[in-house]
């Protein structure tokens, strides 16, 4: 892919404070956002407008995750609690009360009914997604566990920590396997490529490492941004991926050879974010990219190529 046309499709305005997380809904035209506000917001992409407050919260929201194969949204908050909310009824199905420090990442499996929460306390907890019982909890680090990735075949779980470590675990029994090539500063983003060939890791050191999943050795490393790489998201079917950063930019890359294809930033002439871009997501409704940031905006992008 050599050329991409990128246009701003719209802005979702309404948050009064920075937005930290975005997640797709069961219906393609719905997305959810959360941040330093008092609620998780539901947006309608068909109308490009606010729909409702899905769930009120007392503390900042750092993580949102739609539990695989369900209409349930898991919410991680600054007080260390996990909340599971039915996206149709807005009813809270469960409160995951274990961690004492903020929840920064949440992931679930497609092949087994388990949910993973990662916390600033250096531990992760595993919950059954039927009754939401606590199954296991274990220490990963003496520092914050900032991000989680599950491999495409769901054989591996990877955790990124504040002390720059990337740790590989067996997804079957959560046994520690090995420490992978890491970063000089906190690991802030992890993502497996859709074909399962690569694990990408990003950090506060502004570095991006590309690991070959056959042996988890580094096959490429480069500096994609000026500051922290907060998000790495592969397009579900096109050979591209996007990164988002504290440097206020979003960049689109070729997933074949990791070439930079486009830069979305105010400095490049886009009506884009003026502060840190904290999260991004590819949405299936109109095949768009959505970004959220410290400037309280969620921006919808048409990416055509």
UniProtKB/TrEMBL annotation:
WD repeats lie at residues 12-45, 96-128, 180-221, 222-263, 270-305. The keyword Nucleotide-binding does not apply. Keywords: Repeat, WD repeat. The keyword Nucleotide-binding does not apply. InterPro entries: WD40/YVTN_repeat-like_dom_sf, WD40_PAC1, WD40_repeat_CS, WD40_repeat_dom_sf, WD40_rpt, WDR55/POC1. It holds the Pfam family WD40. This is WD-40 repeat-containing protein. It comes from Parapedobacter indicus.
